[in-house]
Amino acid sequence: MSVLKSSLIMASGTVFSRILGIVRAILLAATIGVTTNAADAFGVANQLPNNVYAIIVGGVLNAVLVPQIVKARLHSDGGKAYIDRLLTLAIVIFGGITVITTFAAPLLVALYTNGWSSSQLALATAFAYWCLPQLFFYGLYTLLGEVLNARSRFGPYMWAPVLNNVVAIIGMLLFIWQFGLDPVGRRTVETWDQNQIALLAGTATLGVAAQALILFVFWKRMGLTFNLNFSWRGVGLTPAMKTASWTLGMLLVSQIGGVVQTAVASKAIGGRTMLGDQEVAIASVAAMSIAWLIFMLPHSVATVSIATAYFTRMSNHALEKKFDELKTDLADGLRTIAMISVLATTGLIVLAYPISRVFVGELPGTIALGNVVIAMVVGLLPFSYVFMIQRAFYSLEDTRTPFIFTVAQTIFNIVGSILIAIYVDHVWTVVALALLTSCTILIQAILAFFMFRRKFGSLGHSHLTIATGKFIIAAVVSGLIGFAILQLLGGAHPGTFPVLSIVSSTITCAIIGTVMTFVYLTILKIFKMDEIEALEKPIKRLFSRFNQRD
């Protein structure tokens, strides 16, 4: 299966999942708001399992699993013994960690918050008891999915989150049916009862469980079976654990930065304040979570799909000592990612306020969220570059170098977050944190690129630089045209069409987004970019098939 076809299969699943994720986020914002205390409490609690998972095993599995499974397939049994033992070990570890962290929910909530009232802490802790079991199922999902990825079956891993979102949306609709909407926080944190907490947080966890367990169906279709096997000695897990040690260290360091940043963000408690003679909303943890969801949409659809397909291919090239082909894959992947990420960055900056209006029911909150989105998406391209370059290092079983450039980024992030906490007004705290993250990710990307070049040689960086420059030129032109259309429609002001309602905002995004994409691709076609020609080939083949049928 070609990289393009694999990427398209994954991207289609990711697009559908992310659309449902946006619907889910809109329903959540309508249910508990964005700049409310309840929204912040749920935001911290629902993020905890992701944070703990990232610290303990998330990146470790991603770093070592595919290369090790590719190697294990050379065994006489096709790698079954290795997979059985690895999955058994993972179930034991995930189960134990989940139990420990769930009991430690009050400590974890206190660690990630700052300046909250006892009632808000109590609500966040109650949510956390229901959300932290997600940790077990996130680990199971990653392990089952990476086994499929290593066998070039990429679709199930990207389509499974669709089921997660469907279950969570059903839970949200049941909550709305039972308890009604509350987008501006009229329901105080003191009035939440156990039924409300269980329904909102419990269905979120049920969705993650469904996302993991559905992968067993695809295992069965591929003829894969799983048997518990506790004989962990002598099967070759030790090299994987040694490789994983640097990645575990990297995750621990990066999560320390995350704890500091979340604690600083939580100090900017959501609500309203006066800025001069104007009432403004204060963006806090919940706004940062939604901005991250918006940020991750193009990254998940494009970068993750492309990098995942290339990762298996690069791992095979590394195993066969074909390092020139590995570098070619990396360069091709970076250019393709750049083409999509540059357009996405420009589009999200131009449409930040209309997009935010889809999630927020009033203009002050829309502006607050839009400011965070703009500051965050500035770092989209370097973030995607880092993700792809990390996979190249992982395919070569080099986890030490990613540790080094991630530590550098985290140090800058921690120092910057502390300075923001001291010197930046709470109205702008989360915006400043988002912009800080974008700047430190840029530093990380530059370090990653030059460290790879120093260790493994040039990627033909001049070609990559020229291609990226052309993408930026095309994006600037399309962005200026998109911004002009936005202003013709009234801009982001009270009562104007782009931010009047969810429907008008969606129409605005569709119109401007379509025009910007057309202009961008047209300019790249004029530039005769290879990436455009690669996209055209499957489309032309599809049309030719239809013509032959006619």
Keywords:
single chain, 550 residues, mainly alpha, two-stranded antiparallel sheet, 20 helices, 80% helix, globular
How is this structure best summarized?
The chain has 550 residues and is mostly helical. It contains 20 helices and 2 strands.
- Ranges where pLDDT stays below 50 over 5 or more residues in a row are none
Number of strands: 2
Helix count, per DSSP? 20
Radius of gyration: 23 Å
Approximate helicity band: over 70%
N to C succession of SSEs? HHHHHHHHHHEEHHHHHHHHHH
Alpha-carbon distance between the two ends: 28 Å
Average of pLDDT: 82
**Order of neighbouring strands in the sheet with most strands:** 1-2
Main sheet makeup? 2 strands, antiparallel
Determine the structural class based on helices, strands and strand pairing: mainly alpha
- The coarse overall form would be globular
Strand content: under 5%
What's the topology here?
Elements: H1 3-32, H2 37-72, H3 80-103, H4 105-111, H5 118-131, H6 134-150, H7 155-179, H8 194-213, H9 215-221, H10 237-267, E1 271-275, E2 278-282, H11 285-319, H12 323-350, H13 352-359, H14 363-377, H15 380-395, H16 400-423, H17 429-456, H18 461-488, H19 502-526, H20 530-549
Antiparallel strand pairs: 1-2
Helix pairs in contact: 1-7, 1-11, 2-5, 2-6, 2-10, 2-11, 2-15, 3-6, 4-5, 5-8, 6-8, 6-9, 7-8, 10-16, 11-12, 11-14, 11-15, 12-15, 12-18, 13-14, 13-19, 14-17, 15-17, 16-17, 18-19
